Amino acid sequence: MLEDKLHIALVAGGTSGERQVSLNGAAGVEKALDPQKFLVRRYDPATDLARLATDAPEIDFAFILLHGRFGEDGTMQGFLELLGVPYQGSGVLGSAIAMDKHLAKELYRLNGLPIADWLIISGSDQVDGNQLVARFGLPVVIKPVHEGSSLGLTLARTKPDLLAGIERALSHDSHVMVEKYIKGRELTVGVLGNRDVEALPVIEIVPGEGFDFFDYDAKYKPGATEEICPARISAEQTALAQQYGVAAHRALRLKGYSRTDMILAADGSMHLLETNTIPGMTATSLMPQAAAAHGLPFPQFLERLIELGMEGRKK
Fold it and tell me: Considering 180, 208, 226, which residue would you say is the last residue of a domain?
């Protein structure tokens, strides 16, 4: 019976640089949700905000699949709060904090979590390339403070590359992070839960030939990376990575789920990079892979996210 189905607003698309990633994820989610349990309707914030507001009384739950600005930064979460529509994942505060890489790193640091040295530059700052090279060495990482999917990211190997990378990042954002590059193995840890939080199996990300790191192309070009779950690390390193993932989730005041990326350096030290509040959501995306290894196939994983979202946000 139609009345027995949960009415889901699948919110995807939007206006950020990650629009296509969002739409790809939405197609996978819509296909995976059981049509016997859920009535799914799509809403694209680029065109459908008024319709979403009008339909809100009939919507039981919103599944947000927006990435980047106006979706992952607390904006859509606040809109849904005003409409009284429950949704999955973190709320306004946690989403906004995690989207600001500088603020997130400050909270990592205050909570004793290991991070690489960094500096924030705005468009009005005078940039001294020699000073930056003296502080961070080469290569060095440059990225916009408020972008996801590695958009605008540069791994600069020379001073001219560093200065060009800053200009490139400033074309995406008013503030840019210059961060010490730590060579090592990239790991990612998914976390699931509200009050009772559990870490999922650790995934190791191995960029393929021609990719120095997990940039936008490496993330979304088929076959560009190898993703190994569980990661080829020791039990002690696995436990530490999972501990850091849970600690980051709590430090940033997150809910439902998150995925924290980190580097395992050659000396065995780990360094947190950033935490994603709306990770990629195709069946082969990183967090669904980890959930499947944990015994939650993609459809069941999505239902669990809906359950967690409903727990704290009853309509």
Answer: 180
